[in-house]
Design goal:
about 210 residues; alpha/beta; Rossmann fold; seven-stranded mixed β-sheet; about 25% strand; disordered N terminus; binds 5-O-phosphono-beta-D-ribofuranosylamine
Length: about 210
């Protein structure tokens, strides 16, 4: 029931997440499910899509989570678009940003101005296969093990400190699509767990390494 799903949002003591999407929103749904099931102690303050047609918007709205469109095409440039993002995240009191299939690169200025942790889920075992279509890149390369990485976002693309990873086998009869589906199962499993870890605090960065404990 949507009304029940929305209950955690009334608990103001929970860390507040902002989820940025551009598409189908299956990782957004995994985060919402983890909140419902008590595996992720947080609430989603706002879901922002840069695309008006993102299917994920409906998942948020039907769960009673505020969902807004900030269309990058409506702005003169990246700086103005990012100003609008920072403002909306601030209005919602967001403390941790979760990228979930968000197809815009965020500038160092955004990261600086938001100030809190920004997480991304990337469908490869980083540092292999950065950028778009990572599952196809892995399949074409012929690796026997593929997977997913959750990392903190830094100015360099897909290169921030790694919070969590999970591996899957690549089978001889895989296609890029079957491999992507196997990876997606792991995305939905580890992304909420990694967000929970980061949102709870009690971690630090040592060099490139994400380390638990103060
Ligand atoms: C996922 O494969 C994620 O790893 C990548 O973009 C895709 C988003 O899928 N960054 P969804 O919108 O969460 O279903």
């Amino acid at each position: 029931m949507p009304i029940e799903r929305n209950l955690p949002a009334t608990d103001t003591s929970l860390p507040v997440l902002g989820v940025l999407i551009s598409g189908r929103g299956s990782n957004l749904r995994a985060l919402m499910t983890a909140i419902d099931e008590g595996r992720l102690r947080a609430r989603i303050g706002v879901v922002i899509s840069n695309r008006p047609d993102a299917a994920g918007l409906a998942h948020a709205s039907s769960a009673g989570v505020p969902a807004v469109v900030i269309d990058h095409k409506a702005f003169g440039g990246r700086a103005d678009f990012e100003d609008a993002l920072v403002a909306r995240l601030g209005e919602a009191g967001v403390q941790v940003v979760c990228l979930a299939g968000f197809m815009r690169i965020l500038s160092p200025v955004f990261l600086e101005r938001f100030g809190g942790p920004v997480l991304n889920v990337h469908p490869s075992l980083l540092p292999s296969f950065v950028g778009v279509d990572a599952q196809r890149q892995a399949w074409e390369h012929g690796v026997k093990v593929a997977g997913v990485t959750v990392h903190l976002v830094t100015p360099e693309l897909d290169a921030g400190p790694i919070v969590a990873q999970a591996a899957v086998p690549v089978l001889d009869d895989d296609t890029p699509e079957t491999l992507a589906a196997r990876i997606l199962v792991e995305e939905h499993r580890i992304y909420p767990a990694a967000v929970a870890l980061v949102a709870a605090g009690g971690w630090r960065i040592e060099g490139r390494r994400f380390v638990r404990g103060r």
